[in-house]
Amino acid sequence: MDLLEKIKHAGIVGAGGAGFPTHVKMKSQVEILIINGAECEPLLKTDQYLMRERTEELVQAIEMVQREIGAEKAFLALKKKYGKEIEVLNKTLKNRGSRIALFLMDNFFPAGDEQVLVYEVTGRTVPPGGIPLQAQVVVSNVGTMVNIYEAVQGKPVTDKYVTVLGEVKQPKLLKVPIGTPVKKCIEAAGGAAIEGFCAIMGGPMMGQIMDDFDIGNQVIKKTDGAIIVVPKDQYIVKRKRTPMTHIINQSKSACIQCRFCTDLCPRYLIGHPLRPHKIMGAIATKSIEDEVFNQALICCDCGICELYACPMGLSPRLVNGYIKGELRKKGIAYQGEKGAVVPNETREYRKIPVNRLIARLGLEKYTHQKVGELEELQVKQVTIPLQQHIGAAAVPVVSVGDPVEKGQCIGIVEEGKLGANVHASIRGRIAAIGPSIEIIGEQEVME
Question: Would you tell me how many other CB atoms lie within 10 Å of the CB of residue 353?
Fold first, then answer.
């Protein structure tokens, strides 16, 4: 079995993004491989742990992938402030005589955005609406590389490293089985330290907000890396929970066309024809088919315009999201603008410092939380979604009542479809099959 088959069999998807199946991404020949260790969102610590504690496995996996895709150069991009991680990585690279180079970045947001990363490392701009492959680059994540190393050892993706912090009594870094209830992760961190809280799945800028009901029904998936517990009245929660009708009405009446949303947009700064202020200005007078709204399709949803730039408290990102949905319903794809893509000459002066962003978000009290040593969480029951990735859901290959071992394949991607295999994350028995597969642990069955 070659490397791509092992990756496919193991069910590996992008661990730090939308979950694109890795065996498909790696089926290419390019000039440059970039591994993202920049941990794009504020407060997150999972990738730092992997770079520091699983260095050898990480480096080996990068070398394997570099050979597979024929890349002349391989870069591991991380922030300059990661002193301990840089020290350990440099030592490992030197001992192995590796050709991998570290690319050290300033502490700005969104340093880990895929297309921003390509520009930072290579000076190349991915075409608007395009993918890094068009710039002769493949971008992957630190967590994905560790999963590839394990796939070569015959281990599929069954566990996930998750940072739990914020308003919890004991912030922790956990290793949990896929399908573990989010509620169990919060309990493992000592439980919430406040009454009435929400949880952000992922980072504060782009993460999903969950209330009490959602927390009780949400489970850890292959793409999850953090749980941030915050008060229900926290600034981010209030902004992201504003009804869409109210957001659009606000945009129509209160946008002052200051351009801050555009001038600080990371995609605009690398040369993409995305101008959020024009979209905000047009929302009151133009129909959805107007060409200005086509720009919304290349928004990366980073949230700078919404949570950092706008002096009026408006939400260009959510407006863009609404427009994207409406355009896709009508089957309208991104058309683009003619002419060369030219990065903005002021880009270096408009990067958003993470410390300033954290202050703007009201998250300063969480910046120095210590997560301590890794803790492995054992659970008696998991609910494993059959779709944890871009593409089609996996097809069950087990039946209710079947005994399963940890690592056993329980759902497969059908031949010719974009998707990823799914595996049992604990030993037990199949209790239910639907959009997810529920497994009750062996000990729980016996009781």
Answer: 12
Banded pLDDT at 445 (limits 50, 70, 90): very low
Question: 359 falls in which pLDDT band (50, 70, 90)?
Answer: very high
pTM, full prediction = 0.94
pLDDT in tens, 364-393: 999 989 888 899 999 999 999 999 988 999
Mean pLDDT of 414-420: 91
368 exposed, middle or buried (CB, 10 Å; 0-12, 13-18, 19+)? exposed
Backbone angle region of 126, left / alpha / beta, with phi > 0 → left and psi within -120 to 50 → alpha: beta
Contacts of 126 (CB under 8 A, 6+ apart): 114, 115, 118, 119, 132, 134, 135, 137
CA–CA separation, 323 and 325 (whole Å): 5
Q: What is the predicted pLDDT for the residue at 443? A: 62
Check if the beta carbon of residue 186 is closer than 8 Å to that of residue 165: no
Residues 173 and 57: their CA atoms lie apart, in Å, by: 19
Q: Give the span between the Cα atoms of 37 and 46, in whole angstroms.
A: 10
